[in-house]
């Protein structure tokens, strides 16, 4: 009778262990469903959610650091046609994106409209000098007029240059070059980023994700239109993805992330590189592929971004993007810093450049469960072009077309310790607790089942 009770107890223990294991197994999909439901609820952009609080105003400080290309041999370029020699000077750092979104409007089609105000405040503690530091750089008015004025009008342009005592290069302060100065030739204010303070980016219309979480933060319209008008091509004018501050949750690292940047007037994609630890949080690092700014010869998708056969060597030049069509005609070329991934001829035309991927590449660190970008570095170089002219004195010695680097910027931000702790406390700690319960129940149940089953057969064998 005692043996029977032992065997019955062991059978009951095995059954109980199996039930506990089954419960642990059932909790895995159930727990995943609970996690997904919680994340999807908090990722919707509407008042009261975590996403909305971070969306209205950027919690982390966003900085724009500028490095200028200081010309060391301006007279040799003018007198002998020498190649410019430049030395990088910087960083000069500004706090940006410190203003919350404005004119936020919730639309009936589950989109939100808003304006993104622009502003920059100088941060001396993160700069190598003051805004009054001087830099020898390309004369924006002369280079711009050279690109825009037809060759038959170059004699008239020569008169304007001489009357204003302008030259191919000029010496200006950091503040003037970035935010504007009154040019003596054009009689108007010009600068690399003029006007900036007090201006807006947008209107943007983005999906709030309420009806479809896979569309959250995806841009529906920019400036009232569902496509761009800069490239005269359906493909190149597409508005793809988000603005890169966040993406739909549950990121699949096998798929690229798409985002639109008004700074470069186009949509791009970034691909998964590796998984990294950011303040105790696993993030996926995404980076732009070298093919992003490749020539159409190597990447046929870029054919519609090639607009000037002369300066791009019949569209064989890699690494630069002519964005004059979205800059009110200003002849601006965008590239990665130091012409990273660009054609060798770009660095041969200007001496002193040294592209290093770790310093000059653009990347995003995205938390895969929520889709939030927790750290990023957007690195862009601004360039202008000049070339030879038989009628303009300051260009008579120039031997070939030169895409000249003016400045490169690193716009960067990373979540702070307080936000990291909130993430770990509000989301990841709950996920880990649920995973521990699942694994604990499954492990304990399987162990109890196996021990009781083995013990049952041992008892049964000893009885016989």
Indicate how many domains the architecture comprises. Answer: 2
> What percent of the residues sit in helical stretches (DSSP H or I)?
25-40%
| Terminal Cα span | 14 Å
Shape: elongated
Kindly estimate the percentage of residues that lie in beta strands according to DSSP: 25-35%
Number of helices: 9
Low-confidence stretches: 13-28
Q: If you average the pLDDT, what whole number results?
A: 87
Strand segment count: 19
Radius of gyration: 30 Å
User: What kind of sheet is the major sheet?
Assistant: 11 strands, antiparallel
Task: Please write the string of helix (H) and strand (E) elements.
Answer: HHEHEEEEEHHEHEEEEEEEEEHHEEEH
Oligomer: single chain
Give the class from helix and strand content and strand pairing. Answer: alpha+beta
Describe this entry's structure for a reader.
- The longest helix is centred in the last third of the chain and has 47 residues.
- This protein has two domains: 74 residues; 306 residues, no CATH class.
- β13 and β14 form a beta hairpin.
- With 464 residues, it is an alpha+beta fold.
- Strands 1, 2, 5, 12, 13, 14, 15, 16, 17, 18 and 19 form an eleven-stranded antiparallel beta sheet that branches.
- 30% of the residues lie in helices and 27% in strands.
- About 3% of the residues have low confidence.
- The chain contains nine helices and 19 strands.
């Amino acid at each position: 009778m005692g043996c029977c009770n032992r065997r019955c107890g062991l059978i009951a223990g095995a059954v109980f262990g199996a039930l506990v294991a089954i419960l642990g197994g059932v909790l895995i999909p159930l727990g995943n469903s609970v996690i997904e439901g919680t994340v999807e609820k908090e990722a919707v952009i509407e008042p009261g959610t975590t996403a909305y609080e971070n969306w209205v105003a950027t919690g982390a400080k966003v900085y724009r650091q500028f490095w200028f290309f200081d010309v060391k041999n301006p007279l040799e370029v003018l007198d002998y046609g020498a190649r410019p020699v430049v030395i990088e000077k910087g960083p000069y750092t500004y706090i940006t994106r410190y203003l919350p979104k404005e004119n936020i409007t919730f639309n009936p089609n589950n989109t939100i409209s808003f304006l993104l105000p622009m502003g920059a405040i100088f941060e001396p503690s993160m700069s190598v000098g003051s805004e009054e530091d001087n830099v020898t750089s390309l004369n924006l008015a002369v280079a711009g007029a050279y690109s825009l004025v037809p060759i038959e009008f170059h004699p008239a342009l020569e008169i304007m240059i001489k009357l204003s005592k302008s030259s191919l290069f000029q010496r200006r302060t950091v503040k003037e070059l970035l935010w504007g100065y009154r040019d003596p030739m054009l009689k108007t204010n010009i600068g690399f980023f003029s006007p900036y303070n007090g201006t807006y980016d947008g209107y943007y219309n983005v999906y709030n994700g309420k009806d479809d979480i896979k569309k959250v933060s995806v841009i529906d319209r920019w400036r009232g239109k569902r496509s761009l008008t800069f490239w005269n091509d359906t493909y190149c004018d597409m508005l793809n993805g988000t603005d890169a501050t966040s993406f739909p949750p549950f990121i699949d690292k096998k798929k690229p992330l798409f985002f639109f940047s008004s700074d470069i007037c186009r949509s791009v994609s970034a691909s998964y590189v590796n998984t990294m630890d950011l303040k105790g949080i696993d993030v996926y690092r995404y980076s732009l592929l070298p093919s992003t700014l490749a020539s159409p010869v190597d990447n046929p998708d870029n054919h519609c971004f090639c607009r000037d056969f002369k300066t791009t060597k019949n569209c064989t030049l890699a690494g630069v993007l002519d964005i004059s069509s979205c800059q009110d005609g200003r002849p601006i070329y965008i590239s990665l810093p130091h012409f990273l991934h660009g054609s060798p001829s770009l660095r041969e035309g200007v001496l002193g450049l040294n592209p290093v991927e770790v310093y000059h590449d653009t990347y995003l660190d995205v938390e895969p469960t929520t889709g939030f970008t927790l750290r990023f570095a957007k690195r862009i170089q601004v360039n202008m072009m000049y070339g030879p002219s038989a009628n303009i004195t300051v260009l008579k010695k120039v031997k070939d077309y030169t895409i000249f680097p003016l400045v490169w910027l690193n716009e960067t931000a990373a979540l702070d310790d307080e936000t990291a702790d909130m993430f770990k406390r509000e989301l990841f700690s709950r996920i880990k607790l649920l995973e521990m319960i699942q694994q604990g129940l499954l492990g304990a149940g399987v162990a109890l089942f196996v021990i009781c089953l083995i013990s049952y057969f041992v008892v049964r064998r000893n009885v016989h």
